[in-house]
Amino acid sequence: MEQHIELSPGPKPARNKASSSAPIKSSLGVQPRQDEDRQPGRAQGSAIQRSPDWNNGSLQPAGLFNHEATRGSFSLGSILNAPDSNPPETRSNESPIPADDPVQLGFINLSIATSLFDNFMVNLNPYISQLDPQLHTFNRVRQQSAFLLTATLAAAAKAFNPALHKKLRDHAEDILNCNFRKGTKSVETAQAVMILTYWKESEDTRAWMLLGYVIRMGMELGWHRLASYSLHRSDSTTDLQSRHARNIERTWFVLFVYDRSISLQTGKPWMIERSEFIESIEAWCRDAMATPGDRLLGALVTLRLLSSEVFRLLGPRSSRVRARQLHSLESLLAIIKGRIEEWESRWLRIADKDTCHPFLIQFYGTHLRLQLFSLPLQDILAQSNQNMSYHMEALWVSYSSALEMLHLICRHSSWLYFAQDSVHVMTAYSAAFLIKASIYTPSSIKLCNIVANEASTALVSDIHSAISGAALVFSQQAAPSGSSCALQSRFLNNLLARISKEPSKEATNRETNPPESWSQPGTDRHEVVAENGITTPSGRGFSQMEVGLTLDFAEDEAWAGIMAEAGFNAQDGVFFA
């Protein structure tokens, strides 16, 4: 039976059948200003209720402890219900503006703050689907959370007013540190922390850890037990109450997508499991209050749901299926590929055409195809006795997907300036994949000599053209030094410089020390020379290095050096695991 989220201004009575694993219903009212540092450790915005019920037979801690201890205030004082545990003092006649408001502290002028906030909502928020323009107005955000306000202003300042970025960013970091010490938990705190990770500094490696912190915060507030979404809300709820409810639901959906995405990018485990609530995303997107950003969010949630079980089946590299099972794996991926294409076609039809959403839907879908098909390709290339011509689909889909990602960058260049860091990580991955995979491919393709020769030449030409085109587009963004676009342009140009230098070195080596395979008598001109490259009909060895793809790129240390020279920190990244 489908459940829905009920909203009411006060706490709910205990339910007859409470369970620590059952979905819960959130009780949301029109909240007063939620000043995080004035009420440390207290769940705000989402008053998700759980009560012990001695009649239900629950013997778990969640069913026996004081309910305050299991809904966001897990401390010895709340467990023991000690009256002298120094509860936070409440102040009378509080100012409607928090004490750490960046405007009141003089970090930014009010008119500039208003302008930056508007720029964030119009230009940056569409990429992350984080805030509701109807709910998150400047005045409301300013009254509710200095942290969220400062985080949005810092992100906007990085793009629109770099002179203000550092002091706003530092102030947001100070509030983050203060909130972490106090154990502050609220939906605004969660949103602010996430915004700090979307457009972070290039040397900042905390995204995965901060995401885990926010997910744990959401679990403390009970978001992992949200009930399956229903279009039928209580008639007594106001529009504002419904928007507050959707604000929490949206945040948990965003966390699910972020969790799965960063898991794919870093190879680390995810934290949020799929649930009935997560699976009800399409009904949630059909709500009358759904925003264009909610539709993009719906597309991304369904994409992660589509792919999550496939990656679980494939497992870590050490336990992946081997050569004798590759055929069945490729059949599974062919089915998933068709479903991704259906997904892309469907969500493109309902996406807002005047925003970045069509670009992001195509880009994320293509990236997923690349990652999925690179898994069997990696196992195939690792085995010297594999005939690559039997696995051309994995090779072709991987290559074409990586190339298409770079082509999408060129076709949608107007959306690159404000793109969040995940787009840049995926772009770097596609370029790195094309070069690193190509190192191993030419000597593995056992085709007709002429075809192999021509295919290799065309392949390298396409790769060079795609990478150079993307590098040019990023360089034309006129982005400040140190920005993501500037770093991306430098990274791609670094790759081009490397593959341009190596052929000349290799040509010199060949002139002084020609490979034995060039002059060996009796060599069959229609055989593949697996070690040195491909033999052409003229008998001349066609080295994979000659076309600009050298084994220097095969070492992870080489990639780390290229990334470091470009200004990227690859500590948390996996480009070809």
UniProtKB/TrEMBL annotation:
Q: Which UniProt keywords apply?
A: DNA-binding, Nucleus, Transcription, Transcription regulation
> So which domain of life are we looking at?
Eukaryota
**Disordered: annotated segments:** 1-99, 502-524
GO BP terms: namely: DNA-templated transcription
| Cellular-component GO terms for this entry | nucleus
- Chief subcellular location: nucleus
Q: What sequence ranges are listed for the domain Xylanolytic transcriptional activator regulatory?
A: 207-288
State its location(s).
Nucleus
Q: Name one GO molecular function term.
A: DNA-binding transcription factor activity, RNA polymerase II-specific
* Protein name, as recorded: Fungal specific transcription factor domain-containing protein
Query: What organism does this protein naturally occur in?
Result: Colletotrichum tofieldiae
Q: What is the lineage of its organism?
A: Eukaryota, Fungi, Dikarya, Ascomycota, Pezizomycotina
